[in-house]
């Protein structure tokens, strides 16, 4: 959370150059299929801020800073449970304004893993600690990928959207080294990647200078 606040403070000087907004919604997250863990989707949430330079043209842009809780449910021969993965995401999207009410978004994103937690019948030992050590040790901290979605603006300021994010980076570290610790059963031996479908709502706070110019034109 401290990292999220710090990034928000860094972004403040740039807010005068466009419209700032807030957004929050629900994640339906999963990883690419792996038969060894029989994974399924898991719900989470997303929340963040964005900067959208005002534009009357067909093409515009969107820069975001988002906290996203992802993960997956799993079932193996010996273990069942779920994995929660918390990311700070930095999406950069191109927006195509179909009308003033509908916008299509396409682009790329970076993501930084800040927390990983597993809840299962075998992630707690007799002493109350995890028998697998620190969960973050099994995951790559950096991820990247692409995404796209649709956003509608029914009234001034309000936005409602849906988006899919597809990762290109491997979720787990390479544990082929014999000296490495043995990963838990819910970490498959094959590379898997994050997939997230998001539904969200938000509010855009208009650029004051733009509003003044509109009043002068009127």
Question: Topology, please?
Answer:
Layout: H1 2-11, E1 19-31, E2 42-52, E3 59-75, E4 80-97, E5 102-120, E6 142-152, E7 158-167, E8 194-205, H2 208-217
Question: Please, could you describe this protein's structure?
Answer:
This protein is mainly β and 218 residues long. The protein has one domain (2-217): Porin, CATH 2.40.160.20. The chain is built from 2 helices and 8 strands; from the N terminus they run αββββββββα. It has helices at 2-11, 208-217; strands at residues 19-31, 42-52, 59-75, 80-97, 102-120, 142-152, 158-167, 194-205. Strands 1-2-3-4-5-6-7-8 form an 8-stranded antiparallel barrel. The N and C termini lie far apart (44 Å).
């Amino acid at each position: 959370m401290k990292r999220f606040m710090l990034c928000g403070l860094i972004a403040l000087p740039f807010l005068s150059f466009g419209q700032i907004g807030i957004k929050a919604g629900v994640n339906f997250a999963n990883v690419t299929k792996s038969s060894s863990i029989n994974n399924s989707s898991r719900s989470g949430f997303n929340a963040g801020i964005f900067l959208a330079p005002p534009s009357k043209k067909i093409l515009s842009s969107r820069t975001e800073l988002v906290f996203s809780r992802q993960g997956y449910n799993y079932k193996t021969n010996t273990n069942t449970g779920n994995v929660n993965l918390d990311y700070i995401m930095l999406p950069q999207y191109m927006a195509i304004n179909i009308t003033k009410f509908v916008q299509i978004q396409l682009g790329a994103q970076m993501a930084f893993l800040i927390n990983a937690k597993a809840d299962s019948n075998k992630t707690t030992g007799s002493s109350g600690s995890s028998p697998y050590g620190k969960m973050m040790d099994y995951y790559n901290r950096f991820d990247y990928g692409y995404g796209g979605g649709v956003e509608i603006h029914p009234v001034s300021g309000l936005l409602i959207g849906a988006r899919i994010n597809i990762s290109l980076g491997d979720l787990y570290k390479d544990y082929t080294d014999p000296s490495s610790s043995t990963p838990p059963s819910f970490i498959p031996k094959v590379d898997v990647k994050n997939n997230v479908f998001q539904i969200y709502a938000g509010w855009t706070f208009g650029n004051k200078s733009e509003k003044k110019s509109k009043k002068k034109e009127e």
